[in-house]
Write a structure and sequence with these properties.
Layout: H1 7-17, H2 20-53, H3 55-58, E1 61-63, E2 66-67, H4 68-111
Antiparallel strand pairs: 1-2
């Protein structure tokens, strides 16, 4: 069930939403997320397309029972965790300080 937001809380949010800091927060977020999402999707689709159309290449044995397809599949997991760690560090360094300041301003404004 949706909570009813007070007029003061809504006004505080609208004011903060219009600040340059909030715009910078959104710009930082989208500047990181959009390019990496596109890059990861291209990487993932390359894996899928190679699996479909380059069966001989993907079946090539590298050593033992390990083939190219298995390495590509495992690299999908490595890439996912790598991006998650990279994003966490990026957010902690660039986004969290701005978000903390804005949240503090918001809380001060609605407590008055």
């Amino acid at each position: 069930m949706a909570q009813k937001v007070s007029t003061e809380a809504h006004a505080a949010y609208q004011r903060i939403h219009a600040t340059d800091e909030f715009a910078e927060l959104k710009r930082s977020y989208f500047g990181f997320v959009v390019p990496l999402t596109i890059a990861f999707m291209v990487w993932y689709l390359l894996f899928v397309l190679l699996s479909i159309y380059a069966h001989d290449f993907m079946a090539h044995t590298l050593f033992g029972n390990i083939n190219v397809a298995l390495v590509f599949g495992l690299l999908q997991f490595v890439t996912t965790f790598g991006i998650a760690i990279w994003y966490a560090r990026f957010a902690a360094r660039r986004m969290d300080p701005i978000a903390d300041r804005l949240r503090h301003e918001y809380e001060e404004e609605i407590e008055r």
